[in-house]
Specification:
The structure holds 2 protein chains of 2 kinds. Chain A is of the alpha/beta class. Chain A has 11 helices and 9 strands. The N and C termini of chain A lie far apart (47 Å). The N terminus of chain A is likely disordered. The chains are: A alpha/beta, B mainly alpha. At the A-B interface, helix 4 of A face helix 7 and helix 8 of B.
Chain lengths: 275, 320
């Protein structure tokens, strides 16, 4: 009935903030989500249901709204309409379930903090207001740094790290958050091969522990080997489902439509996969 | 020259103002909104005038409330104008603080005659007169300014001490701060309020020039000398305190070399802070000019001696 009301309502969001219609075992459910900057829609009427324990690639051309989708899910930018449920409830009440890895350029790397300080920020949620970072949080942070393979760089100021190492610091911070769903905005952007490998290993580890990871990704050649679930996005959701079913020439053409060279790249990538 | 207890109190008052400003100043600099200190220190004028007109007195409490209100308003207006007017943040700040400052001036002129608020006094302050206005603190006769600034300093210390991790997080990564439930906007307004209150308290004593200088210059100098936040805060406080002592001494001493009378101390304190910044820039361990030139020479010598691949050098370099 609720779905019926939602479908019948003119804006599609008659259910409003009432999220009781969403099952509580689904890490991320997005319904009728539209986000607009200065009245221009960036994502339009997005519907998504992401099952638990998947490595999810979010793929689409530049300006398709991949980052916007993530930020809207995390209340970092206002939604024009629609709703997002994390395990059946609004994000506000589920913060501790969610880990966020923003794009690397989003922060000032000259900031006077060490790698360990940044990773320890992941534990602030469990600390809450006013309580200072203690030895337990530092150990947790150190542990996370070891897991991404840069424990020996803990004391360095973050400017003194390479781009790949900086990316690993961000991932270690998400690890220290100990969330159930991770949102990662282009973790593979401009990193060296060793870091890419480390990130993939980390994703697999998280996956084995039953975590759900949503990853904005660019490289079509690696999509099918990294992710078992795929969301193709170009303002709207072109397709969403198991990578094997969704990663098809027809879908890619729909996603990248008009950008001929990109389609060629995509088709080549696809052919590589088939071979 | 003869150093009297008068001079000591002037230096203490100046140092308390300077250190109280330097603490929130560090976070302003790190948030890349150094000009916000400048803006707020001007924009509080209508708050002061309004507080005076309503209560008819110059009691500190009314002034603080007026200032805090306008501090938050400045931050709010700036945000609105830059968002809805589609104007760059710096320009929005310029619009807000000049307008508010002008309104403040008009209010003071309107009330002139009835009001003992002097715009000139706001700019230069009257630090030389502070030891004359004393209150009894137990057996001790302490200048009122020292008591007020001491309390403001304690307030700022408490804020930085209690909210250290929150302030650091929201300055470094506001997005993460928000997703973790530490509203970066709330912390922003809190910082603005603290800056406004500190500004007003210091205003009366030492004028706005030293306030604007001490919000930014010690923090800037400290950032050249370290890349850790706690040492940065400590160094900034040190620079602030030393510039107060140095400034007062220079204000008495330097003019006498040319056979002139002592000059304005608070102005000279700001100059001293600038000098200390220059020294940090020249001789700083990390970002200092001399160190950089030296490092350049060393590196080129190293390259001459043992040409190796950059990556190997990166790996073999000992951890700092």
């Amino acid at each position: 009935m609720k779905t019926l009301i939602r479908n019948m309502s003119p804006r599609g969001d008659a259910a409003g903030e009432d999220l009781s219609g969403h099952p509580s075992d689904i890490p991320l459910a997005v319904h009728d989500l539209t986000v607009a900057y200065h009245r221009k829609p960036v994502i339009w009427d997005v519907d998504l249901d992401i099952p638990e324990g998947k490595l999810v690639g979010i793929v689409g051309p530049n300006g398709a709204g991949k980052s916007t989708l993530m930020k809207a899910c995390l209340d970092l930018i206002p939604k024009t309409s629609g709703e997002v449920a994390i395990y059946g409830k609004s994000y506000r009440s589920q913060r501790r379930m969610v880990g966020y890895v923003p794009q690397r350029e989003s922060v000032d790397w000259d900031f006077p903090v060490s790698a360990l300080d940044v990773v320890a920020m992941g534990t602030y949620r469990q600390l809450g207001w006013l309580r200072p970072v203690g030895r337990r949080q530092k150990e947790q942070a150190m542990d996370a740094l070891e897991q991404v393979g840069i424990g020996h760089l803990a004391k360095r100021q973050i400017r003194q790290l390479s781009g790949g190492q900086q990316q690993r610091v961000f991932l270690a911070r998400a690890l220290a958050q100990d969330a159930k769903v991770y949102f990662m905005d282009e973790p593979f952007a401009a990193v060296d091969a060793a870091t890419e490998e480390a990130i993939v290993k980390l994703l697999r580890t998280l996956n084995e522990r039953g975590k759900t990871c949503l990853v904005v990704h660019h490289d079509l050649a690696t999509v099918s080997s990294y992710f078992d679930w795929l969301v193709l996005l170009n303002m709207r959701v072109v397709a969403s489902g198991p990578t094997k079913e969704v990663f098809t020439a027809a879908n890619l053409e729909k996603t990248y439509g008009g950008h001929l060279s990109l389609i060629d790249d995509a088709l080549r990538a696809l052919r590589n996969v088939v071979e | 020259m003869s150093w009297t207890s008068f001079d000591t109190w002037i230096v203490v008052a100046g140092a308390l103002c300077a250190v109280a400003c330097a603490l929130p100043g560090c976070f302003l600099v790190l948030r890349r909104m150094s000009m916000m200190g400048d803006a707020i220190s001007h924009a509080v004028l209508p708050g002061l005038a309004a507080a005076f007109m309503i209560t008819g007195s110059r009691t500190s409490l009314a002034m603080f409330i007026g200032a805090a209100a306008v501090g938050v308003l400045t931050a709010l207006f700036t945000q609105w104008i830059s968002r809805f007017g589609n104007v760059d943040r710096g320009a929005a700040m310029g619009i807000v603080f000049t307008t508010l400052f002008a309104i403040g001036l008009l209010m003071i002129r309107r009330a002139a005659g009835r009001v003992d608020l002097d715009p000139g006094c706001v700019l230069y302050g009257a630090i030389e007169l502070t030891p004359l206005d004393t209150v009894a603190l137990g057996p001790l006769e302490v200048p009122r300014v020292v008591v007020v600034m001491g309390m403001v300093l304690l307030l700022n210390l408490a804020m930085v001490g209690l909210l250290f991790k929150e302030l650091r997080l929201s300055a470094f990564d506001p997005g993460l701060s928000d997703t973790l439930g530490f509203s970066s906007r709330l912390l922003h307004y809190l910082l603005m309020t603290v800056v406004a209150v500190t500004t007003v308290a210091a205003f009366e004593a030492v004028g706005s020039i030293i306030v604007i200088a001490m919000l930014i210059v010690p923090a800037g100098a400290a950032l050249l000398l370290t890349h850790r936040l706690v040492p940065m805060l400590l160094i900034a406080c040190g620079v602030a305190a030393v510039s107060s002592l140095m400034g007062h001494w220079l204000a008495i001493e330097v003019p006498s070399w040319f056979g002139m009378e002592a000059t304005n101390s608070s102005g000279m304190m700001a100059v001293a802070a600038g000098l200390l910044f220059g020294m940090a820039w020249l001789f700083g361990r990390e970002g200092g000019l001399v160190a950089r030139l030296g490092r350049g020479a060393r590196v080129s010598k190293e390259i001459d001696r043992a040409p190796r691949h950059g990556t190997e050098r990166e790996e073999s370099r000992p951890l700092p």
